[in-house]
Structures are given as structure tokens and as C-alpha cells.
Amino acid sequence: MAEVQTTEGNEPLHQLLTPDGTAELDGTLSLDLTTVDVRALYRDLVLTRRLDSEAIALQRQGELGLWPSLLGQEAAQVGAAHALLDQDMVFPTYREHGVACCRGVDPISLLGLFRGTTLGGWDPYDRNFNLYTLVIGAQTLHAVGYAMGVVRDDAVGSGDADRDTAVLAFLGDGALSEGETNEAFIWAATQQLPVVFFCQNNQWAISAPYSTQSRIPAARRAAGFGFPGIRVDGNDVLACLAATRDALRRARSGGGPTLIEALTYRVNAHTTADDASRYRSAAETEEWTGRDPLTRMHTFLSTEGLADPDFFSDVDKQSDALAERLRTGCRALAEPGTTLPFEHTYADMPAELRHQMREHHDFVASMERSEASQ
Length: 374
What we know:
The chain is an alpha/beta fold. Helix 2 runs parallel beside helix 8 and helix 5 packs parallel to helix 6.
């Protein structure tokens, strides 16, 4: 394992894949590459980036109202997602497009949220991937509540690999300043809950740099709450996979929570409604662009003889096909039905809510008939 000493309190930044694409797999953060589909990791990195770039283009063309880009954060998301087991539950923010796709969520449904055709509703249990959360930090409490249910269902520490469950909660560095996040940390620690907090420290909470939020690295905060924290290179997909796999394994066995800080960089603006040039320098962005996680993985696969030109060409074709599907699918998204806001409120809809749903449907229908008759 390579440990790069940082300027923030000499906190070690754990790497398994150096910026020049060289694997250094010795050390405490280890990863058996025979258990990893490294080609799938690269494919998902490429497809995640293409989803992001196409969504930005659709927003610029007026097809989406907004889009929060993940450019530069692909390795953190794909690495963490590949550590999950089927029964594990994910609680995202609003930027985990790569995690969603790795989890099997249809990317067109992600577009629907920002087009206004889904009202934020999909079945979170279909892919064990909860709804996108726009309220900063709220998902950490949702994750802790779910983890409490896991414990009460005796689905942790049983030794049954097909039953024991962990919860993976994603957050950004800005969420560390929210009361909800600190409450979630306290509750997870005191209850020894099977939850892993994965902080993508992209160094900017919209226009606020991390230095204005904390004087220590995010990973070190975990010690104050009584559970482990680890800081990894968020542009190293192998390190993110290894750290998350270890933390999830510990959570499933009853070892309690972990905080992972994936140090990365948000190359694009906070959202398509933001102008990052107003608060950060072009030189900073250029420096981090040179640490591109896709280039790093491409170099590793090539130099290690793990992929040939035909493989890379095939991934590019898959990327083009995804882009076409996104463009077509976005424009074909249907307007939301009148019953949609009611359908994901309860697992079993109460009679009173069903009555309200019918009333709402009838009211909207009457308004449409009135407009048609004018």
C-alpha cells in the first residue's frame, strides 16, 4: 500500500493504485485482485462519466431543469458500489449517479427526477437503493434508522453471508457541517449499528472550501464519535473498493460503523446552475483534472495486460449506445400521472390516503375537461 502524507495534520492518504497507474498492493489496506472484476470497474467508470456528460448536454438543451455533475468522482462511487452485496442498502445524496447505475437503477429514471417527470418517486427496495436526498445530511439519519431495523431483524452478526446486511450512506464534505450528520454519527456509534458513512470530500461545499468547515481531515472526526475512520485516495477505484469492502464486512459482522473519507475533486460546478469560476481558480481545477481516475485505470489495465484494444473499443461502443439511449429515453419520459405522488408514501396505502388520491385525480380530470371545453 502506498501512503501519501498530506499537509492536513500528516493524515495518511491510502492508495492502491498510484496516479501513474502502478499497483502497489502491499500493506494494511490490501485487495486480492483475483476477487475483483477490474475490467467491469473500468467499464462502469466510463459509463458513469458518459451518463454525466450526456445529462449535462441535455440540461443545456433545455431537456432537464438541473443536473449535479459528478465529474472527477467516478472512482469513489464505482469503487464503493462494487463493494456492496445484494442485501446491502444504499442511501445516496443527489449526486451518486455512478452508484445508482452500478446498483442496477435505470439511468433514465435518474434523468426523470431532474426533468420533473417522476416527482422523485421510485421503489427504493427494487435495487436496495433509496431515493435521492436533496436535503443536505438528511440521508445519514435515514441510513441510521434503516440500520436500526437491520439489527432488530437479526440481520447482522449472524454469520449467514446471505442474510447479514450493512448500510452504506453517502455524503459530501458539506454534510459534515450539518447537525443531522453529527446526530447520525452519535446514534450509529452508541448503538453499534451496521452503517458505513462514505464521505466524498470533493473539497467544495458549493462555494465553501473544506478549510472553512474543518481544521482536520474528515476521517479523523470518526475518533471523536468512537468508531474508525480511514482516508483514501478518492481517485483510486481500487482503494475505494478495498476500504469500503473492509468497512461493510465489519459492519455486517456486528463491528459497528466506519467513516470513509474519499479525497477527490468536483471538476465541474456544483450543479449546472452554478459558476465555479467565481470561487476557485482554474489552476486548481487543472491540477486535479490531471489526476483523472479513468486515465489511471486505463493505464493500469494496459500495462498489466488485463485488457486489450478490443476491450477498450467495446467499452467505447457501450458508452455511445448508452448516450443514444439517454437522449431518446429522456425525451420520451411521460408526464407524471395524478396518482404518482401518493403511490410511494406507504407500502400499504391507508384507506384515507386512497380516498384523497381519488379526490385529487377527479379534481385534476375536471380541470382538464373544463380547459378543453373553453
